[in-house]
């Protein structure tokens, strides 16, 4: 069992299932990879074996990975196709995570029409920060935004008001196929500005409406 940490340092003893992720949920990111904007959320899953704590050192599980900084939701109540009334209320905490991607391999898999798991769902492919209880966030998710600074320069900036599929619509769509259980995670998609991580890169992630900050350095080995 993976123990999520609250900002206060206590553990949240939730069994952790899957992360349901969405591709191309910001128009500018779809454009930067020359992908069309989807009519329906493009969903994929990272298993719990992909989860690692986003520590002060980021040890990459394989070389040449790309970062995608994403707001992550921790689900605290079951949501299913039959029981998804007011799905925002099922979110118990938020954090930022890195949807680590082997972009070269993903491009090869896409060209062959194959699934992306080998490029996105491998062990360690989802570093997650400490969890911030939802009551510390502004009530309206449209007011949430986050930033990645890479080596001191603002590189990614996400505003949830810009989501092609906003949180409520996204959750309702997810549960048509994948029931969400307490301890599951939802990744809400990356804004533009993705790129490759190099040893020694320093990353500072922040949720702008809060004191939440996380600094990490890519380990060189
Ligand atoms: Zn992503």
Number of domains: 1
Distance from first to last alpha carbon = 28 Å
Please list the strands of the largest sheet in the order they lie side by side: 4-3-14-8-9-11
CATH superfamily: Fumarylacetoacetase-like, C-terminal domain
Order of helices and strands: EEEHEEEEEEHHEEEEHEEEE
Query: Given the structure, what is the number of helices?
Result: 4
Can you characterise this structure?
With 221 residues, the chain is mainly beta. The chain has a single domain, classed as Fumarylacetoacetase-like, C-terminal domain (Fumarylacetoacetate hydrolase, domain 2, Alpha-Beta Complex), CATH 3.90.850. Helix content is 12%, strand content 32%. The chain has four helices and 17 strands. A six-stranded mixed sheet has the order 4-3-14-8-9-11, with no helix packed on it. It has a five-stranded mixed sheet with strand order 6-17-16-12-13, with no helix packed on it. A two-stranded antiparallel sheet has the order 1-2. A hairpin with a 2-residue loop joins strand 12 and strand 13. The relative contact order is 0.27. It binds zinc ion. Zinc ion is lined by residues 21, 68, 70, 99, 189-190.
């Amino acid at each position: 069992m993976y123990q999520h940490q609250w900002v206060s340092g206590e553990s949240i003893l939730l069994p952790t299932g899957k992360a349901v992720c969405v591709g191309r949920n910001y128009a500018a990111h779809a454009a930067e990879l020359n992908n069309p904007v989807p009519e329906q959320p493009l969903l994929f899953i990272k298993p719990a074996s992909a989860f690692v704590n986003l520590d002060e050192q980021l040890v990459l599980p394989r070389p040449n990975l790309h970062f995608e900084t994403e707001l992550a939701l921790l689900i605290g109540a079951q949501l299913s196709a039959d029981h998804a009334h007011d799905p925002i209320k099922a979110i118990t905490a938020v954090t930022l995570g890195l949807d680590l991607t082997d972009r070269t391999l993903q491009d090869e898999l896409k060209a062959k029409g194959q699934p992306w798991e080998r490029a996105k769902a491998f062990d360690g492919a989802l570093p997650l920060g400490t969890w911030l209880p939802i009551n510390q966030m502004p009530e309206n998710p449209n007011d949430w935004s986050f930033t990645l600074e890479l080596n001191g320069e603002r590189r990614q900036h996400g505003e949830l008001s810009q989501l092609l599929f906003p949180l409520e619509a996204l959750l309702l769509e997810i549960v048509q196929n994948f029931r969400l259980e307490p301890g599951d995670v939802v990744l809400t998609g990356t804004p533009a500005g993705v790129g490759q991580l190099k040893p020694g890169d320093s990353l500072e992630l922040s949720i702008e409406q809060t004191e939440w900050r996380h600094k990490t350095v890519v380990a060189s080995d």
